[in-house]
């Protein structure tokens, strides 16, 4: 009986994932838009501002890349909120609830779609960074660790997006949550060392989640020990993900 229930859940999940992925494939401009903005930002900072920014490294692309990846993910999850809001407004969830399917798979389909689409964006940005001179001495385990951190970061923000998509009153409200998140890397060590910032700004920058995530990814890509940054980064990602998951499921139950 338990095996049948599990199979039923995963079968439903595959259907919901396929549905969401078809929406993505029919509007590839979503992934293109999410990818182009961070790439344009990377080109701007490297070739226009890079010569005036002191980071203590010879290759500014290496320094900049982790922050660009986080910005791309933050931009991408806003579309998850939009798609969820659209489903709620059109009564899609109510229609699915009349069918014999696992209800939680409706949300998980959107979440996994976000994970896949953002992974595509990250790979494209990495390829462009390689063309711009990005170099890494990281081994396979370090690359897997980077992938794991980025996946956790994506899941954490996607569940935050789910809250926005389920509770927003308008389309603009559903995607507006991403703006502060996209702005966070600018007040971190993503673009410049925090030592160059005024004291008040530096204290905030050094104690917000993006800085520890950026520092951990940067160290891993350089083939260096990540130290405490990796544990702090994981704690932030897991903590945000669990809290957002709780409130998203609560909002889901209230909404539908």
UniProtKB/TrEMBL annotation:
The ABC transmembrane type-2 domain, residue ranges: 29-255
Q: How does the entry describe its membrane topology?
A: Multi-pass membrane protein
Q: List, alphabetically, the InterPro entries matched.
A: ABC2_TM, ABC2_TM_bact-type, ABC_2_transport, Nod_factor_ABC_transporter
Q: What is this protein called?
A: Transport permease protein
| Keywords per UniProt | Cell membrane, Membrane, Transmembrane, Transmembrane helix, Transport
Main location per UniProt?
A: membrane
Q: What organism does the UniProt record list as the source?
A: Paenibacillus rhizovicinus
List GO terms (cellular component aspect): ATP-binding cassette (ABC) transporter complex
Q: Name one Pfam family in it.
A: ABC2_membrane
Q: Where is the protein found, in the record's own terms? A: Cell membrane; Membrane
Which family does the similarity line name? Belongs to the ABC-2 integral membrane protein family.
The regions listed as transmembrane in this protein's record are 31-51, 63-85, 106-134, 140-164, 176-194, 230-248
Give the molecular function GO annotations: ABC-type transporter activity
């Amino acid at each position: 009986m338990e095996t049948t229930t599990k199979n039923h859940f995963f079968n439903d999940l595959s259907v919901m994932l396929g549905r969401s992925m078809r929406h993505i494939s029919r509007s590839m401009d979503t992934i293109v838009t999410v990818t182009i903005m961070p790439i344009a930002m990377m080109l701007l900072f490297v070739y226009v501002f890079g010569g005036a920014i002191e980071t203590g490294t010879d290759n500014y692309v290496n320094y900049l890349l982790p922050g660009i990846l986080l910005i791309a993910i933050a931009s991408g999850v806003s579309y998850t909120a939009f798609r969820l809001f659209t489903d709620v407004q059109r009564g899609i969830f109510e229609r699915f609830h009349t069918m014999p399917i696992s209800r939680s798979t409706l949300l998980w389909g959107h979440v996994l779609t976000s994970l896949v689409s953002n992974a595509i964006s990250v790979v494209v940005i990495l390829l462009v960074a390689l063309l711009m001179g990005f170099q890494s001495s990281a081994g396979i385990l370090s690359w897997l660790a980077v992938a794991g951190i980025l996946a956790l970061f994506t899941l954490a923000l996607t569940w935050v997006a789910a809250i926005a998509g389920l509770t927003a009153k308008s389309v603009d409200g559903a995607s507006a949550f991403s703006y502060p998140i996209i702005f966070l890397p600018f007040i971190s060590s993503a673009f410049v060392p925090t030592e160059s910032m005024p004291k008040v700004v530096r204290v905030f920058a050094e104690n917000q989640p993006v800085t520890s995530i950026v520092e951990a990814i940067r160290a891993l890509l350089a083939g260096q020990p990540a130290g405490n940054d990796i544990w702090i980064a994981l704690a932030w990602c897991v903590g945000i993900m669990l809290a957002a998951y709780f409130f998203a499921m609560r909002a889901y139950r209230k909404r539908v």
